[in-house]
Amino acid sequence: MNVMASQPSKTDSVVGAQGLGKTFGGGAVVALEDASFDIRPGSFVSLVGPSGCGKSTLLRLIAGLIERTSGNLQVHGKEVTDPRTDVGMMFQKATLLDWRTAVENVLLPTEVSRAVTKEDQKNAAELLRMVGLKDFLFAFPSQLSGGMQQRVALARLLQTGADVLLLDEPFGALDEFTRERLNVELMRIVKEVQATTLFVTHNIAEAIFLADQVFVMTPRPGRIAKIVDVPFDRPRPLSIQTSPEFNTLVAEVRDILGEDH
């Protein structure tokens, strides 16, 4: 499989920002202000905060989809100036092509950049097996549940070979049971492929369950109010959410958010 990209040394910062800011409308709307952070290789960071606080804006800046207004932003030590092949992004909706099978949807990023090889086809099939869809390689989106479609979208993200994964509320529209199962799968997969991951959510418990660090953001203008370290080893069982230590962290993040309302 070609899903694992080479990683920098553990002392390096994969994603780093200093005084990062973004405004819209000629400065009338401040979406993100003075954000500074360093994200370690292979770590999982959750972004939590109220709607409109700049979480999605931050992901789009890292992906190179929009230009920053102020500050500095680097991925693998290089300034972000345009979209990068080592950064992949997944959105709340799967956005699969209805006329393509699951494996054909996974292969789409490869087709866009070059001719598809037999190795690419093998890798796409393996990725679908990794996300639990080995029996649905040739199913069309209309034959898949919402959770299964998101699994295809995750496999498509991994097919890009990016080692920085940006996920913008990818499971927000799913029922709680499916969401929990996909959270467990996501944690296992990103650990296996050694990806550095940023995950946007409005759910405090989900943010803590998945992450090594939680970036707690303020209402607009979006700032990082505090970075909360999560001391539990990954991957984690769902049962950890009933522990006193876990719920202490939930209360801490909720208090931070409450202070900024």
Task: Describe, in plain words, how this protein is organized in 3D.
- With 261 residues, the protein is an alpha/beta fold.
- It has 2 domains: 1-86 and 164-261, P-loop containing nucleotide triphosphate hydrolases (Rossmann fold, 3-Layer(aba) Sandwich); 92-160, no CATH class.
- Helix content is 34%, strand content 23%.
- The chain is built from 8 helices and 10 strands.
- The protein has a 6-stranded mixed sheet with strand order 6-7-8-3-9-10, sandwiched between helices. Strands 2-1-4-5 form a 4-stranded antiparallel sheet, with helices on one face.
- The chain is globular and about 50 Å long.
- The termini are far apart.
- Residues 1-11 have low confidence and may be disordered.
Q: Quaternary state, please?
A: single chain
Q: What does the main sheet amount to?
A: 6 strands, mixed
Question: What is the CATH class of the largest domain?
Answer: Alpha Beta
Rg to the nearest angstrom?
Answer: 18 Å
Distance between the termini: 46 Å
Strand runs, count:
10
* Percentage of β-strand residues: 15-25%
Low-pLDDT windows of residues: 1-11
Fill in the CATH topology of the largest domain: Rossmann fold
* CATH architecture designation of the largest domain: 3-Layer(aba) Sandwich
What strand line-up does the widest sheet have? 6-7-8-3-9-10
What is the overall number of helices? 8
Q: What pattern of helices and strands is seen along the backbone?
A: EEEHEEEHHHHEHEHEEH
Question: Which homologous superfamily in CATH is the superfamily of the largest domain?
Answer: P-loop containing nucleotide triphosphate hydrolases
Q: Indicate the mean pLDDT.
A: 90
**Per the principal axes of the C-alpha atoms, what is the gross shape?**
globular
Structural class: alpha/beta
Kindly state the percentage of residues in helix.
25-40%
Number of domains: 2
